[in-house]
Amino acid sequence: MTNELLAIAGDSAAEIADSVRSLIDRGILEPGSPLPPVRALAETIGVNRNTVVAAYRQLAAAGAVETAGRAGTRVAGRSDLAEEGFSADTVLRDVGTGNPDASRIPELGPALATLAGRPVLYGEPTIDPALERWARDWIEADLPHRDDVRLTITGGAVDALERLFTGALTRDDPIGLEDPCFLSAQRTVRAGGYRPVAIPVDDEGMTVEGLRAALDAGVRAIVCTPRAQNPTGVSLSERRAMALRDVLAPHPYVLVIEDDHFSMLSSSPFHSIVGAGHRRWALIRSVSKFLGPDMCLAVTASDPETADRLAQRLSPGSTWVSHLLQRLVVSLVSDPAVTAHIADTARHYRARNTAFAETLTSLGIATTAGDGLSVWVPVPGPGRAVAEQLMRRGWLARPGEEFVLRDDTAAAHLRLTVHDLSDDDAERLAADVVAAARSLAPTKKVMTRP
User: CDD domains annotated for this entry (predicted)?
Assistant: First the structure.
């Protein structure tokens, strides 16, 4: 420990963090290696104790170290955070993908045939005029209290999040995230070196108490999913949205980002937590859930200042979103046959998820199908242990532990993507979930609350 302690240097938190990362990069500090206690390091290099605390916090936010309370701080292992998508290297039936049904993504052929036109050159507007007209109608109907809406096009919702963070925050800034939380949001926050602050979610969405606590903790931005929250599937009630607006009212300069990822497929009404007087806000709607993940395009509506900061990171001809892609999206969403197909797909997801939840409930695991592509299934005990039992039965499932920011009861869940299963396979999976849960708690009732 002495050599490592003496090798760490710096007068500021950023310099100390960089020094530790250099030791990690050179292999001097290996995964699992303990870092010096805060007090000892502060005395050795001659800085305030709070400076070392801030350095360790930066390292933890970046995923370089892990803190364990009185057990100290250690260099993190090299395992990556979980990602969305199917697992290509498995013989198991993958029910943890979070993917839309590939057979229900609209055909692109007819729309592609309409895209011929003049080339788009450097210096032209980043938003195709036809897409802007459609997007404005799509979004402004849900923002009747705003007269300052500006639109920006990005390469998907995660791209929008990253650009919004970069334009408004600095390293180690705290960001309020729902808990449990969408995997991509977790990755974006940690990769940017920001500090996630957990805001619990219940059956009406982000909790009032959790938001109030996050604001008291000094968060500079908040990410809220108004509909089909991933992984829980809950949507904000009108009552909850109103209460959250009241809590936010004294904090008009906190950046509030609403990620309405399910938009056209959602069965729930849109309720915003952004009040009429809020100064910094953004509403993101991507097309990937209803037009396919490869359609990397999102529309972001925001206040003028936030839009200007977004635009600074979107250079015409280099980092803009392809106008061919923009025109393809307009062609698809303007086709009545495509929009009817999207509506039918939304009904399909709701029906399949509801049927699966009802089957589980009839077998003893009380489950409610929320909105979205997956079902959030409560299980007695750690979700990871139940998922391991399911692997022995031929299934690859997502344990709740992958989504939580804090160690709490939300981990006692599985997130299952079941909309593409046949009736027989869905019934078999439900039976296997119950059997896996019972094998871990043979003396307890399996029935739990969602």
Answer: AAT_like, WHTH_GntR
Give just the sign of the alpha carbon dihedral 151, 155, 158, 164.
negative
Residue 318 has pLDDT above 80, yes or no: no
Single-letter amino acid code for the residue at 179: D
Q: For residue range 97-130, what is the model confidence (pLDDT) as tens digits? A: 999 999 999 999 888 888 877 788 887 888 999 9
The C-alpha angle with vertex 404 and arms to 448 and 365, in degrees rounded to 5, equals 15
Distances (CA, A) of 141 to 63, 138, 420, 423: 40, 6, 32, 38
Round to whole Å and give the CA distance between 267 and 411: 26
Q: Identify the weakest region by mean pLDDT among 56-70, 117-131, 187-201.
A: 56-70
